Amino acid sequence: MKKNDVILQTVTNVVAFMIILFSLQVFFSGHYHPGGGFIGGLMTSGAIVLLLLAYDIKTVASIIPIDYKILIGIGLFFAVGTGAGSLFFNVPFLTHAFNHFDLPLLGETSLHTAVLFDTGVYLVVIGVTMTIIQTIGESE
Amino acid sequence: MLDLVLKISLIAVTLSMLALLYRVIKGPSTPDRVIALDAIGINLVAVIALISMILKTSAFLEVILLVGILAFIGTVAFAKFLEKGEIIERDRNH
Fold it and tell me: Which stretches are transmembrane (chain B) (predicted)?
C-alpha cells in the first residue's frame, strides 16, 4: 500500500533548513558560547536524518551527493593539517594562533585557527554519524 | 517574589511530568507511550527555561531549541516505525 506523507515532507522541507542554520550558529559561536564542532555536527546529521525519515535513502543520496566515508577523511585531514601547520612556524604541534582582521561587511573580527580544527571535528562527526545510520538503514 | 513564582511553576511542571510518566508506564498501547514521551520532552523544555531563569543565565537557551528538535525527530521516527515497521526506507517508490 502506498502512503503519501505530504504533511511530514512539507514540514521537513522547512524544518531541515532551520536545524542546519541552528547547527551552523552553534558551530560558529562555539568559541565564546556553549556549542562547538561536536554538537554542531550532531545537529547537522540530525537534519539529514530528518530528511531520511521523510524521504528515502535513494532520494537523500541524490539531494546530498556526498560519500560520508570520504567526509571522515577530509575532517581528519583538517585536524591533522591544523596541528602540523604550526610546525612551519617553529612552534610545537597543535599551537594555535589568532589575530584581528577587518573584514568587509562583518567589521573587526578575531579569526582563530582553532576554527579550522573545529571544522575537522564537525566533518568527522557528520561522517561517522551518517555512516552508522546509513549502514544500519540499508541492511535487511 | 519572582523567585517564588518560578519555583511554584517548576513544581507544577514536575508534577505534570510525573503524571505523564504514569501514562508512559501504564499506557495500554505503544502510541500512548510515544505521545506521553513527546509531552515529557516539551515539559523538559519548560523545566530548562524555568531553571535558566532561576539561575539567571542565558547559557541554556541552546539546550531548549535542541531538546525541541530532538523530541520532534524522535517522535517522527517512532511514528514511522509504528506505521511502516521500518524507520529508513531504501526506495519508497516501489
Answer: 6-22, 34-54, 60-82
